[in-house]
Amino acid sequence: MSAALDHVGIVTDRLADLAESYTRLGFTLSPLARQADGRIGNRCVMLPCCYIELLAVVDPNARSATLECFLARYAGVHILAFRFTDETAELARLRRAGVEASSVSRFERLVDDADPDGPRARFALIQTPDQPEGRINLVRHLAPEALWQPRFLAHANNVASLDEVVLAVADPADTAARLSRLIGCVAVPDPTEGFALELSHGRIRIHAAATGVVPRITGLTLGTSDAAAAIARTVVERGIAHHREPSAWVVEAAAAGGVELRFAASAAA
Amino acid sequence: MPEGRLYIGNRRYSSWSMRGWLAVRLAGLDVEEVVIPFTRPGPTEAISRLSPNGLVPYLEHRGMRVWESLALCEYCAEVTPALWPADPAARAQARAISAEMHAGFTGLRQAMWMNLGRDFAGLGRTPAALADIARIEALWADARRRFGADGPFLFGAAFTAADAMFAPVVTRLLTWRPEIDAATQAYCAAVRAHPLVSTWYDAAAAEPAEWLVADYETVR
Q1: Residues of chain B found within 8 Å of residue A11, distances taken between Cβ atoms
Q2: How far is CA B109 from the centre of its chain?
C-alpha cells in the first residue's frame, strides 16, 4: 500500500495574521483549537483528502521549544504527516527500514475551543526522528468525522485537493532515498528535475535548491475544481502578491505564511 | 501534535511534580500533562504501574523516558540550555544547590509538607526542619549575593532550574510560615509571583475535593 499525505503544518508566530491571510485567499478555516494544554493553537484548511494546519503558540505566557526551533529557521511548512492504517504493520515497516520510531501514542483535542462539549479529534501518532527537512509524523485518525465536518470543506476559492508538496534541498537523491524509507513509498525521477515520492494521492517533489534556506519546504500545489478561476479573481481583486505560470496561479510565499501556493486545475478533475 | 506526556501527581501536594513541571514548561516541551491523583494509604498504584521508579514526575518525550526531577531538569536543559545560568561558575553553583535539594532536606520535607491550600502557620517547627531552613536560607543568600544581583531569582533575572528545584520549598515557607529573614521573604515573593508558579497554584486550587488526602490536610 502506498503512503497518503494526511496534513502539512505551517508554523507561524502570529496565528491570527496567518489565518487572516488564508481567509483572504478564499479558504474556510476551522475554528481555533488548542492543544498542548492550551499553549499551541491551530486553524485548519480541511480538504477532502487531507488538510493544511496553521499553528502557533497562542498563550502569551507560554513557549514551545519545537515551534521556536522551527521558526528560528523560517516561518512556513515544517510538518509533513502521512496516514497509516495499521499500527503494528507500520511500526514493523519502520523497523525494517532502519527507522527508530517511538511507539504509537494517542491523543485528542477539541475541534472548536468555543464548543467544549463538541466533537473531539482523536489521533494515533507515530513520531519519527526529526529530519533536516522538518518533522515527519505518521497519523491515523480515530474520529475523522470530528475534523472532516461538511461545514469546513467548502472553500470560496474552490480548492479541492492538495496535490503536491515541493521541497528544496541540497542533495535531492539523498533526501528522496531517506524520505522514501521513512514514509514507505517509491522515489522516482521527477519529470522536471530531482525526484518525486509518489503517494496514493499526489506527490512530494524534491528539487535542488537554488537559493535561500536549505532544506526547506517551499511550495504546495492545490487542485481547484474551476481551473483556478476563483483564486485568479481573488488575488487580482484583493491585491495579493502572485504570479502566473502556464497552468497555475501562484501566490507568493510572503502572502501565504512562508510557502508558495500553486493553484491549478485539480489532478482529479 | 503533542510530543509526549508529563505525568504528575496532585498539584496541591506533589512537590517533585512541581519541579518537573516547571522545568518542562520553562523548556517549552510540547507535552500533554496527565495528573494522577494520589491514593492513600500506600503508593498510588496507577503511578507504580506507569513510571519506571514508581514515582512522579515522569516524562515521555519523543520516545524517550525520563524520571527523577533532577534528571528531568537536565533533560529539559538539553532542549533549552538557558534553564541553567550561562556563566560557568553560576551554572556550577546552580547544579550543586539543586543536587543538594534533590538529595536532602528531609527534615523540612517531613515536617512541613507541601500543601498549597492550607495555612499551617507556626506549625511543623521541628529542630531538623529549622536546621534545613537555615541551610536553605544560607544557600539562597549566597547564590543571590554572588550571582543574583540583576534580578529577583537565585541567579538573577531568569527563573532557572535551580529556582524550579527550590520552588516547592518556597511554597512550604508560605504555607508553614517559619521565621525567615527579609531577603528570603523577598525571594519567596518573587517565586510566588512568577507566572508559571501562579499557574501551578491556580490549577491546584481547581483540583476536585475528592482528590484531597486527609493525611496532608491536618497536622497531628
Answers
A1: none
A2: 12
Q: B204: which 3 cell numbers?
A: 491546584
ipTM of the complex: 0.80
Among all residues of chain B, which has the CA nearest to that of A37? B32
The pTM (predicted TM-score) of the whole model is 0.88
Chain B partners of A81 at a C-beta cutoff of 8 Å?
Answer: 1
pLDDT tens readout for residues A223-254:
999 999 999 999 999 999 999 999 999 999 99
A148 CB neighbour count, 10 Å cutoff:
17
| Cβ proximity of A157 and A224 under 8 Å | yes
> What are the pLDDT digits (tens) for A17-61?
999 999 999 999 999 999 878 899 999 999 999 999 999 999 988
Gap between the Cα atoms of B137 and B73, Å rounded: 22
Which amino acid is residue B99, in one-letter code?
A
The rounded distance, in Å, linking the Cα atoms of B56 and B91 is 26
Of B28, B62, B199, the CB nearest to A127: B62
Does the beta-carbon distance from A107 to B199 stay under 8 Å?
Answer: no
Q: How far is the CA of B23 from the CAs of A65, A123, A173, A268, B75, in angstroms?
A: 12, 27, 40, 49, 9
- The pLDDT of residue B42: 78
DSSP secondary structure letters along B25-50? HHHT---EEEE----SSS--HHHHHH
Composition of chain B by helix, strand, coil, percent to 5: 55, 10, 35
Give chain A's residues under pLDDT 50: 1
B206 interface with A at CB cutoff 8 Å: no
